[in-house]
Design goal:
By secondary structure, the chain is of the alpha+beta class. The longest helix has 19 residues. The radius of gyration is 21 Å and the shape is globular.
Length: 329
């Protein structure tokens, strides 16, 4: 009843990714062979991937969409969204063998390993929505800036694919006005656009990737949103699970190694002498007694890491934490 059959997702206004619902639907499809359940998952994942919630330039997903079409995001980025969405796209790839789901997983991990990973191995919590006092300023583009950075062929293709218009497609959520800037989102298929431009999908993808790199390097020179550099046990547990599962399914040892490094950091720095977890770590200090989700999600991460490596140490640590959790929670 909640499913939006027109745009994907759940509800009719503001939309959150809700990956837990997608993971449930994938299991329901697996057990019942319900094509409707799988269709709901695919429509939602495709809409999020193509929409403005997906950072098409630097990768990773924003926190939620302010509209039912997934076009206008609230620009904050959360670690737990990256983790759970990576798992959802990984399992959708397992269910369908569609390569664009695997590509989305790789893009999410590219963002996390590049921008949200501490040198110690822990993962940071979030990036703010605003910079220089303006929501989304880091992420939006005006048409003139894009034209100045790309050649004419690339500009025409890029603007067609990502719905860039001279007057801007971004409506500021707070002010309710149109400031003349654009959010990147896909409203038409690349096949249709390439055909109209007498090109091929393959050559168009090459042009778009080159354009993305140019715009990414330009965007890196902007003032970045503030980064919340707390390392939280529960959210790191989710990312360990995501990297372990993604690394195993996609045969990417780099992801599994990142999961192992995070797990080693937490075990070395965020468990006290009594075997109790701490909730957060920042500036070389661990603190706040762990909550039940710190235990549950870290155990989940360690179990996925065990399945990716068959290192029994991860299984033993999970069992020890489970015994503590059962006794105290």
């Amino acid at each position: 009843k909640e499913f939006d059959s027109h745009h994907g997702g759940f509800g009719t206004s503001t939309k959150f990714p809700s990956p837990h619902k997608l993971l449930f639907l994938l299991r329901y499809w697996k057990r019942t062979n319900s094509e409707k359940a799988l269709s709901m998952v695919e429509q939602t994942l495709d809409a999020m991937r193509e929409g403005g919630m997906n950072d098409h330039i630097g990768y990773g997903f924003h926190r939620y969409s302010t509209d039912p079409e997934w076009q206008i995001p609230h620009f904050e980025k959360m670690l737990y969204d990256q983790a759970l969405l990576a798992i959802a796209y990984t399992e959708a790839y397992q269910a369908t063998c569609k390569q664009h789901y695997a590509n989305t997983v790789r893009e999410i991990f590219t963002y996390v390993l590049r921008d949200m990973t501490d040198s110690s191995g822990g993962f940071y919590s979030a990036e703010d929505a605003d910079s220089e006092g303006e929501e989304g300023k880091f992420y939006v583009w005006n048409a003139e800036e894009i034209s100045s950075l790309l050649d004419s062929t690339a500009v025409d293709l890029f603007n067609n694919v990502y719905t860039i218009v001279p007057e801007g497609n971004f409506i500021d959520e707070a002010a309710g006005n149109r400031p003349g800037t654009n959010i990147l989102y896909i409203s038409r298929t690349l096949q249709d656009i390439a055909s109209e431009m007498n090109s091929t999908v393959k050559s168009s993808l090459k042009i778009l990737e080159n354009a993305r790199k140019i715009l990414f390097n330009t965007r890196e020179k902007r003032v970045h949103p503030h980064k919340d550099d707390k390392i939280l046990t529960d959210w790191n547990g989710l990312m360990i699970a995501a990297l372990s599962k993604g690394g195993r399914v996609l045969d990417e040892p780099e992801y599994i190694a990142a999961a192992q490094k995070s797990a080693s950091f937490i075990i070395a720095n965020m468990i006290d002498s009594d075997g109790q977890l701490f909730h957060r770590y920042r500036e070389e200090t661990a603190g706040i007694k762990g909550n039940v989700d710190d235990y549950a999600f870290l155990i989940w991460g360690l179990l996925e890491l065990y399945e990716a490596t068959f290192d029994v140490q991860h299984l033993n640590t999970a069992l020890t934490l489970q015994e503590f959790m059962t006794e105290h929670f």
